[in-house]
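Example 3.2
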Amino acid sequence: MDIPGLDPARLALLLQREMPFGKHQGTVIANLPANYLHWFAREGFPRGEIGQLLALMYELDHNGLRELLAPLRADGKNQKP
């Protein structure tokens, strides 16, 4: 599926970057629960790359597009051990 304006490299980062703080510290952003993402959407995303990735993951989740990450998960090389 090709979505205009969606950078595949940004999707790959969702499977690589971990939450650096909070209740889900150490969890890969793509694995964060929906309610946590929705909380950030209500309260405000942090600045910087983490905030941008959280916002992207929220949009994917909110629009039922988490399956876009499936090919990257199956690839295996975009996941932390």
